[in-house]
């Protein structure tokens, strides 16, 4: 309990990943799904930094996480713009109700 | 000792924030839980000697990305009433079991694997160390990501424009 | 790490594409009042230059660029040239499709060029970090392109679906990359291959494959494809079906063969890829059978083609076949990618040529093809040629592609998979030939207004159909080029 090691950080990452995956697969709200994706990205970042710190040395993991933050920002900007146009057309961001394409 | 206390504090807040994102009916509450999780993760990064990353986590994730989320939520006025209906119980249960299974699987995987221990150098994670690596060794990814940011700006403008 | 001029020169195609995008954005600001026809020409010029740059670099041995993030090898050059060819068709299609709808803007071409730059970087990425960045550089502009034309609700819904699944798949890929990093301490593909690892590496591998399977639309990760392909405007659909798929296949192959090429690991992923290939071929073809909507039919057809391409990927596994068989499999993959690019881009061109302006509840119904042979014999002949190539009937390039892929599978010991592939293509005959039958045997419905011809679209149709026939009759040149392009670094 008192000694904190690599496994502890990885467990936090795994929990966040599972929560994010749950969010993406069951949420119907577009913004909610996007937040789930952000959780997964953060889970990956915790893993990168923890692995880099505890087991592989090197700064590679941190730099990877740094790039991921930038990518997340780019993705969020475009994604939320798309959510806005969707709302303009359908007046809802419920994934299951914005459905005019067959199938 | 202090480290352990801090770790448990941040870890519990991070996971609770994640749970909040999943459980909140009101998107606004979800976004605020996410904010808490981001701050807690920044704390975890500090414990891992990733100072620059911790600062950027707060600045970019909490400061920029989350504000964007909040902006959209408020702009569209997505209160609990306007938010999407919650999925049926069966889906929720299956999803929850799946998520629990996934987390358990990953944890057993991590526990079963063995990792070589390493002692990080003293300047590990400092701005100077990361910056040097970023601009000398990572030239190509750095240039590519600037292109990506350009594409994202252009894409967001094109998409958000009222009509073509 | 010193950056040499040679490294920068090796990235000339990507630099040209990015420069083209920047120039188009500038002209959009400063020449906004002028007529916009020149923009397509500008985009086409830069694309052709990038294509030429890829061809000019052929022949040199594999080289590591920028300290190991990217490589320049035959595989990357061939795939990059294929992507540029697909982009060129997309640009011409865009010119013919957008101008009459008065929706021609520099941004459209700039986004397409940026996405193509991402694809070209993706096929030469040699590090999981760089793969991820290039993947996003390809995807983010594509999300925006899907939402570009906003006639009705379809594009915004398609963009939304594409974005959500794309973001999710990128996140899965990233978490997989984190696990791989944890297991090996490396992110470079050759480093991962050298390090090896246990169960954690396998979990990472599974997530990486799942993430990329979304991009190539392999069953069961294909659910988004029909809706997104239908909802996007037709030139964008062609770009997604051709460019995104080619780049994703190239990077999937590179990751599997170089990073996870060790026999013990190949023994794990080969059955996975075989299962994916089987599911994708069977369900892609069966689902396409029921479609009267030709655009959806082509979407499912592109899913089915992903299945044939996966057969080639499975055959490239080193664990079960010698180096020569692996070279054969990789070259068949490259050849099939080139053939698929030409044919599919042309087929979507045929669709764009028939699409009417203004509101239309059933714009892509099979009936639109009725009587085409009478009204526009050349367009009908070209469309028929493209459909034959998609179905894999001689003397088209599609037939040669299938032949090479299935032969590679047999040589790699995957005989049952090859047989399943042949059977699946037989099912495919029905829905491709149905289009030809409708064009030639059915009269145009009474009172139907023919769509006015547009020369860029006709150019695409005739050019792709001619090339499809040409490469089908004399495939040696292209096949030899593919065969000499199988040099994967460290593979």
List keywords for this structure.
heterotrimer, A: 103 residues, Helix Hairpins, 0% strand, B: 164 residues, Four Helix Bundle (Hemerythrin (Met), subunit A)
What's the SSE blueprint?
The complex is a heterotrimer of chains A (103), B (164) and C (491).
Chain A lengths: L5 H21 L3 H27 L3 H31 L13
Chain B lengths: L1 H22 L3 H21 L3 H25 L13 H24 L14 H10 L2 H22 L4
Chain C lengths: L4 H6 L1 H19 L6 H20 L6 E3 L4 E3 L1 H25 L7 H18 L4 H19 L7 H31 L4 H7 L3 H18 L7 H8 L2 H26 L3 H27 L4 H22 L7 H32 L17 H4 L1 H15 L5 H15 L3 H27 L13 H19 L2 H8 L8
Antiparallel strand pairs in C: 1-2
Walk me through this protein's architecture.
The complex is a heterotrimer of chains A (103), B (164) and C (491). Helices cover 77% and strands 0% of the residues of chain A. Chain A is built from 3 helices and no strands. The longest helix of chain A has 31 residues. The model of chain A has no long low-confidence stretch (mean pLDDT 86). With 164 residues, chain B is mostly helical. In chain B, 76% of the residues lie in helices and 0% in strands. The N and C termini of chain B lie far apart (60 Å). The mean pLDDT of chain B is 85. Chain C has one domain. Helices cover 75% and strands 1% of the residues of chain C. In chain C, strand 1 and strand 2 form a beta hairpin. In chain C, helix 14 runs antiparallel to helix 19. Chains in contact: A-B, A-C, B-C. At the B-C interface, helix 4 and helix 6 of B face helix 2, helix 5, helix 6, helix 7 and helix 9 of C.
* Fraction in helix of chain B: over 70%
Provide the low-confidence segments of chain A as ranges. none
Greatest interface by residues involved: A-B, 75 and 83 residues
How many domains of chain B? 2
Proportion of residues in extended strands of chain A: under 5%
Number of helices of chain A: 3
Distance between the termini of chain A: 51 Å
**CATH class wording of the largest domain in chain B:** Mainly Alpha
> What Rg of chain B is obtained from the alpha carbons, in whole angstroms?
20 Å
Distance between the termini of chain B: 60 Å
CATH homology superfamily name of the largest domain in chain B: NADH-ubiquinone/plastoquinone oxidoreductase chain 6, subunit NuoJ
Give a quick precis of the structure.
The complex is a heterotrimer of chains A (about 100), B (about 160) and C (about 500). With about 100 residues, chain A is mainly α.
